[in-house]
Write a structure and sequence with these properties.
This protein is of the alpha+beta class. Among the domains are: 52 residues, no CATH class; 122 residues, no CATH class. It has 9 helices and 4 strands. A 4-stranded antiparallel β-sheet has the order 1-2-4-3, with no helix packed on it. A hairpin with a 4-residue loop joins strand 3 and strand 4. Helix 4 runs parallel beside helix 9, helix 6 packs across helix 7 and helix 8 packs antiparallel against helix 9. The radius of gyration is 55 Å and the shape is rod-shaped.
Length: 283
């Protein structure tokens, strides 16, 4: 018994059947008899496939030829795209929500960074202030050391020098430390009596000198700051300037123990002796 065979090509189903089956082959439309291949040809469509299976399904093995590729309708394609678009929109919504959360976190981090930078600036200012205090302390120690050195020199002078006045001794030491007489120092500082009013008077004298140097009027603190900004006072000179300013303020405003007046006057005098050579000369 001849077997029924169905094969597929790119565009057709080919039915190979014995001659006695031609009537059955003609029940499926549209058909075409191919004399070259001695087979019946049918369009490769879903309807033809179903008709072939219905007519010859019992004569062929199951799955011996595949159905045609499913042709999607425009509506099916549109539905698929709609589903994909909705899925992408949902994913985009989630991404936007996540991004919003990241933006909030980023803003918090920026605020924290700003706080950290602010704390660093405060710390830097503290460090600068500490460095300034250390410099002032070092300068004060140098002044004390210089004073101690002068005291040691006093111990080694002839016995006649022990009878001189304290003011004369300090003036002698100051001139010696300057390497000779200084007309501006003698005029501005040595002309002031070394008594209980010395701290106030030397502060006034310093105020007047700095006012003439800078061309700026104001408080002593303001003209000191102006002199610093204009480059007339180096760091060492600033230390001596503030010694004189602070001692003048202390005696004028705070009424310290009068037993300390002589020491304060000596302290201010030594500071002035070290300061005047560092200042510009002014008439």
């Amino acid at each position: 018994m001849h077997k029924v065979l169905i094969v597929e090509s790119d565009d057709h189903y080919k039915l190979f059947i014995p001659p006695w089956g031609k009537d059955r082959a003609k029940t499926i439309h549209p058909y075409q008899w191919c004399i070259q291949e001695t087979c019946w040809k049918y369009p490769k469509t879903k309807n033809i496939y179903d008709a072939l299976v219905h007519e010859f399904g019992d004569d062929i093995s199951a799955g011996s030829f595949p159905p045609p590729p499913t042709t999607k309708s425009f509506q099916d394609i549109q539905n698929e795209f709609d589903d994909k678009i909705k899925k992408l929109e949902d994913e985009n919504k989630l991404l936007k929500q996540s991004l919003l959360g990241y933006t909030e976190i980023s803003n918090v981090l920026k605020d924290k960074d700003a706080e950290i930078e602010n704390l660093r600036d405060i710390l830097k200012n503290f460090e600068l202030e500490e460095a300034g205090y250390k410099r002032q302390l070092q300068r004060a120690r140098l002044i004390v050391k210089e004073y101690e050195k002068r005291i040691d020199e006093l111990k080694n002078v002839p016995s006649d020098y022990s009878k001189i006045k304290l003011s004369e001794f300090l003036q002698h030491i100051a001139i010696k430390g300057m390497g000779g007489r200084d007309g501006y120092f003698e005029r501005d500082v040595m002309s002031i009596p070394l008594d209980s009013m010395f701290c106030i008077e030397i502060a006034k004298k310093l105020h007047g000198c700095l006012t003439r140097i800078t061309g700026v009027s104001g408080t002593l603190y303001e003209v000191i700051d102006s002199a610093k900004q204009q480059g007339f006072l180096v760091d060492e000179a600033l230390d001596y300037v503030h010694v004189i300013r602070k001692q003048g303020n202390e005696v004028r405003h705070n009424d310290p123990d009068r037993r300390t007046y002589e020491l304060r006057a000596m302290y201010s005098f030594v500071a002035a002796a070290l300061l005047w050579p560092l200042m510009p000369e002014v008439d």
